[in-house]
Amino acid sequence: MDALVSQLFAGLSLGSVLLLAALGLALTFGQMGVINMAHGEFMMAGAYTAFVVQGVIADAGVSLLVSLVIGFLVGGLLGLLLEVALISRMYKRPLDTLLVTFGVALVLQQAARDVFGAPNVDVRAPSWLSGAVEILGVGIPKTRLFILALAVLAVVALSLALRYTPLGRRIRATVQNRDLAETSGISTRATDRLTFFLGSGVAGVAGVALTLLGSIGPTLGTNYIVDAFLVVVVGGIGQLKGAVIAAIGLGLLQAGIEYSTTASIAKVLVFVIIVAFLQVRPQGLVSVRTRSLA
Amino acid sequence: MTRLLTTRALAAPAAVALVLALGACGSRTDAGASGDSSASGSTSCVDTSGDSIKIGFLNSLSGTMAISEQTVRDALDLAAEEINAGGGVLGKQLEIVGEDGASEPTVFAEKAEKLIKSDCVAAVFGGWTSSSRKAMLPVFESNDALLFYPVQYEGLEASPNIFYTGATTNQQILPGVEYLKEQGKTKLFLVGSDYVFPRTANKEIVAWAEANGVEIVGEEYAPLGHTDFATIVTKLKGSGADAVFNTLNGDSNVAFFKEYKNVGLTADTLPVVSVSIAEEEVGGIGIENIEGQLTAWNYYQTVESPENEKFVAAFKAKYGDDRVTSDPMEAAYTSLYLWKGMVEKAESFDVADIQEAADGVSFDAPEGTVTVNGDNHHIAKTALIGKIGPDGLIYTEWSSDGPIEPDPFLEGYDWAEGLS
User: Fold this and answer.
1) Cβ contact (<8 Å) for A290 and B22?
2) Which of A81, A122, A152, A175 is the right S-S partner for B286, CB 3.0 to 4.6 Å?
């Protein structure tokens, strides 16, 4: 019973980490169709933001909260820069985008290495997040609860923004039918830029959150980018809902299989399941009905 | 129909993206090509006529291993500088040819070949991962050249053309588990990264445990770069273990120790002995996450000896006060001095002469006196179990009674029969 509860939670928690990593990608890849290999590096930038902020604000709790905001801006601005400088020149050429952003990822990694040094750096977790709370007789780490809450918050905020704000309506319109949206007077260029800012900003937030769980080094992004793409591909292009279900599902699957086998086997089996799933449903869990000719 | 088209149009590049990303984060483990073996020992082109002698430093200065290997290169440079300032080797100044192994075993093999054949170096110093060493081994054997390898490894290897100045199994892993047994720990949990070193080391530990009445209550491996240790730590908590032996490598340690601390485990309740965490890594893991945990090595920056004081002071003077010294760095530094000792004893830079003279050459290293074993080309070293202090340095908690003779094939242990 204990093992079941703790593994259920481990799966949920892993799912929330995957979700945070994939949420921004669900916007840029899912909504815009841009394959941004530098997405992981925006997370890395967010993590280093937390490190820098902690150098300025000594209190770990305050600095974490401040970092979440600044991390969003740092990730978002990097994304905006990338979109304006490079990606905007190669819409409709997905393979070129892929290679260019992969190059940008390598450049960003090396830049981090030059600025912060090759060894990992440390971000202290605030004292109110240290230790565990008892839930159903199982000790659950507070950091993981925090990340779970953050993921929920991010999803809710993004879906509300997509549903009710003018920007959200413009994004959805552009996704569903770019030509028609343009004809209706929506500046799709401006919408693209904002979407990219938002998606990359969420990556920055994910980076800040991940400092609570993992290492902070130049290659942080590469640890998560594959899983993030998997979540979006399994979830289906164009909808946040799909990413949420996919992330939680994959998290539970990984944790469940890992408990009864080993971490390596679990990774392999999850891949196999994903490949099999995509054979049956290549469009992913949830897909948008669109009449566009793209 | 259009829906399908869209998905397909995106699926192809997405697949490429995944392949690229996988390639970027996975480390390659294939051993790489052996050098073409036309040359034999007699064709050595080492020039000993001038005032200087060339030696090669081959470390990864780029790629994933650069973080560790750069520090080894720094230590090698320091040793070369000191030796040159002291008059060189047999009156000749050392001329360094530096090469970048780029974290790729195949590159290590290529560059080793270049150093031996085109640069005509008298000896090569470097390598870190076991796969890089295994890739270079045939190159050094077929060209009859010398490699000095400075990192602790899994044992079960010996080559006349390689000198191993890091620890082999019976100088690091065994003292680690024996220390735990001495502390009354009888239920060990093994956790490691999923590749050759942890798997071999754990195979040896399991054999040792059977013979020593210690129970192995769990054995878990995480893929390199694994970032989520919730499940492994859950298994660990439920296993009833009273100590953990950790052969995780690299970033995984950070995620592991953060999870370990977050679920409320501490060094007091469930100590972890790690063999891949040195002074360099402690800062990145976060002192607050790992303070009080144990490590097994042969050298710590805090070792008290005049030789170490001099080494640490010289290192900090050259590279900055914030730098720390670690076991592999010290082993690399020592390797250059050992080569010097061998050359001076042989009064020759010739490989065959050095191999003959090697036995018994010793050096008062920062870690203490080390002596070369002429049979297996490893060196006798003292094992030190250390505890990570609040300042991020590691302090010796227990040390073996003097240097332990190297036994890479564990021939002196009955329980190790049948291991390969």
Assistant:
1) no
2) A122
